Amino acid sequence: MGLAKRIIPCLDVDNGRVVKGVKFVEIRDAGDPVENARRYNLEGADEITFLDITASSDNRDTMVHVVEAVASEVFIPLTVGGGIREVADVRRMLNAGADKVGINTAAVFNPDFVKQAADRFGSQCIVVAVDAKKVSKDDEEDRWEIFTHGGRKGTGIDALEWVEKMDRYGAGEILLTSMDRDGTKQGFDNDLTRSVSEAVKIPVIASGGVGNLQHMADGVLKGKADAVLAASIFHFGEYRISEVKDYMKAQGIEVRD
Amino acid sequence: MQTIAVIDYGMGNLRSVTKALEHVVDKDQQVILTSSQAEIASADKIVFPGQGAARDCMAAIDQYELRETIVDAARNKPFLGICMGMQVLVHESEENGGTACLGVFPGEVRYFGDDLHDADGERLKVPHMGWNQVGQTRAHPLWQGIDDQSRFYFVHSYYLETEAPELEIGHCDYGQPFTCAIANDNVFAMQCHPEKSADAGLQLLTNFAQWDGQA
Question: Rounded to whole angstroms, what are the CA distances from B39 to A40, A246, B68?
């Protein structure tokens, strides 16, 4: 027995409200971040990730209040991503009660930002979110590239070189999303996950594409992920976190009961 | 009114610690976040958190002129060290090419290494991040109501190697067994984060809030 593989539900927050909120029977307000987080905590979530999808930067402070409210009631690690562009953003979220912040696009445009944030606050709270898409042809060796803007813009940066660099720059963790699989419900890109996991010394969270319980287990068994993240399968109540854990446990994966 | 002071020296996620404490304290207890020598000296109980690198933590402690105050508190009242707040209680850390620490207890802090494997030969990542099982080496008032081998949340790349095995109160395993909690008289200090460890962690903080400092 040892370290458990983590199951992480992800909630999208727009202007302080959870979108695609959990359809729990008992929940009074499906859009309330605190209620959603509390429910996930009760079900055994090992961490919770909030993704701020608020388009306008005028409303950024809303997310700070969301984090403050959740951190006052839910005592498991909280990660906040979306709109983290400078050291001041990191500080604001940590002060509000976030344990980790996810840095995505800003890292691509300014890799030194990751270094600065890790130096200032410690690697343990810096998660670099990586959106990768396969660019190799079928008859070529697998190759993935980093994309920004929700997978629309290629950067020409090789995904494996990028994660090694982020590891060296002080990232504490990689949140890896396959843009080919995101939203497809066909499962993680386990070749991508395994390649990334083997390339770095830090933990890797697999994301993008989960449609069923086997997909979650495969992220660990085939993708060698240290944690698996999913959004929609939890949102719509298709699966409970406890079901995921039971399923993974039955496949020999160590989870937190 | 009893005061639990969380020491603020600019390092780490102090809001999580204070929020979790506020959640568990009695009505006649208050939680304060403070950098003041006087407030720390007059508080009834001390929580000493910490995150980041050892060198930065020690530099911050000195910048806030809290070295004596922290060492004094660790000698005379219920004192809970968390994460880096545990690590800097010993003599020295290997981190940052060697960092002299507070020296309240004998011991050194060492890096897990880049070639860590579990019993099945699977490579283990560093930092050790996530929920691992904590074995209770001995009974202690702070373990009350917490099952042996309960899972707590960890995030660290360095671990404590104590030269005084009798200090160990909790142990963990990550590629190798290591001491994850120490206790001596009025001090209890742990590598993992009770403020982020759901029910087990809240129980530990509750126990601390009620602890009289007697082992």
Answer: 38, 48, 14
Q: Tokens at residue B113, please?
A: 């290494």
A-contacting residues in B 128-157 (Cβ below 8 Å):
128-133, 149, 151, 153-157
| C-alpha B131, offset from chain centre | 16
Residues in chain B within 8 Å Cβ distance of A226: 125, 129-130
Q: Are A172 and A202 in contact (CB under 8 A)?
A: yes
Nearest-angstrom CA–CA distance, A68 and A98: 8
CATH assignment of the domain containing B125: 3.40.50.880
| Helix residue ranges per DSSP H, chain B | 14-24, 37-42, 54-63, 67-76, 84-87, 198-210
Q: Is residue B117 part of a domain?
A: yes
The hierarchical CATH code for the domain A6-250 is 3.20.20.70
The CA distance from B104 to the nearest CA of chain A, in Å, is 24
Domain tally for chain B? Answer: 1
**Mutate which: A124, A174, A249, vs B, most B CBs within 10 A:** A124
CB contact under 8 A, A124 and B51: yes
* A77: nearest CB among B20, B52, B153: B153
Are B194 and B23 in contact, with CB atoms under 8 Å apart?
Answer: no
Residues spanned by the domain of B198: 2-210
* A99 in contact with chain B, both atoms CB, cutoff 8 A: yes
Residue B215 lies inside a defined structural domain of this protein: no
State whether B153 and A172 contact (CB < 8 Å).
no
Whole-angstrom distance, CA of residue A104 vs CA of residue A112: 13
Q: Tell whether B129 is covered by a domain.
A: yes
Distance between CA atoms of residues A10 and A51, nearest Å: 7
- Whether B193 is catalytic is yes
Local confidence pLDDT in tens for the 257 residues of chain A: 799 999 999 999 998 998 865 555 555 577 899 999 999 999 999 999 999 988 776 777 899 999 999 999 999 999 999 999 999 999 999 989 999 999 998 999 999 999 999 988 889 999 999 999 999 999 999 999 999 887 788 999 999 999 999 999 999 999 999 999 998 999 999 999 999 999 999 999 999 999 999 999 999 999 999 999 998 888 777 899 999 999 999 999 999 99
Q: Which residues of A touch B132 (CB under 8 A)?
A: 2-4
